[in-house]
TrEMBL record:
GO terms for cellular component: HAUS complex; mitotic spindle microtubule. It comes from Nyctiprogne leucopyga. One of its GO terms (molecular function) is microtubule binding. It comes from the Eukaryota. InterPro entries: HAUS_6. This is HAUS6 protein. One of its GO terms (biological process) is spindle assembly.
Length: 109
């Protein structure tokens, strides 16, 4: 009788473990399906943007107005930390510094 009870307990334990594994597997499959859908959405957005969303500044032509160029040349060490183009790419930090100086110039006038 003791062996039968032990056997039944082992079967119940196995069934519980199997049920837990099935439940975990269902959660994993649900997550994978969800991630697959999200990946498809991201892929479609990226496919539409190929070649359109390059932010390296290689094709940007930047010209500085004469008034701003004169003011910047006068105080170059206080205003800008670098060249507008470095290694044939736009230096965004310098562009932002120039834009800030342009705004200061407008404010002062």
């Amino acid at each position: 009788a003791y062996r039968m009870k032990q056997n039944d307990q082992n079967k119940n334990d196995k069934m519980e473990i199997i049920q837990k594994v099935r439940s975990m597997w269902a959660v994993v499959m649900e997550m994978l399906t969800s991630l697959k859908n999200e990946k498809e959405v991201v892929d479609s957005v990226l496919d539409d943007c190929v070649g359109q969303c390059i932010l390296d500044g290689t094709d940007v032509v930047f010209s500085v107005p004469q008034l701003l160029a004169h003011r910047v040349q006068r105080d170059i060490h206080q205003i800008c930390t670098g060249n507008i183009y470095e290694a044939e790419k736009l230096n965004f930090l310098t562009v932002i510094q120039l834009l800030n100086e342009a705004l200061r110039t407008l404010r002062d006038e």
